[in-house]
Specification:
With 68 residues, the chain is of the alpha+beta class. It has three helices and three strands. It has helices at residues 10-17, 21-29, 46-55, and strands at residues 7-9, 36-38, 41-45. Helix 1 (10-17) packs across helix 2 (21-29).
């Protein structure tokens, strides 16, 4: 099966992205993560995980250091 078409539950998606389940729910409500509610569960696609990782999750930049 193509990874982009794979359906992933929110718990697994949180693990793949290195964030909490609550963080992903908040991202869904803010419209930053596209997901579908199936029964009581939220489902995302592999393609959406990839998009979220590349567009929303940016590496944290370190503040410039001062030289004394």
């Amino acid at each position: 099966m193509d990874d982009d078409a794979r359906l992933i539950g929110l718990a697994e998606a949180a693990e793949l992205l290195g964030v909490s389940h609550a963080t992903l729910r908040a991202q869904i409500w803010r419209g930053r993560l596209n997901a579908e509610k199936v029964g009581r569960d939220w489902i995302v696609t592999g393609a959406e995980i990839r998009r979220y990782r590349s567009e929303v999750q940016e590496p944290r930049r370190r503040a410039p250091t001062r030289e004394s």
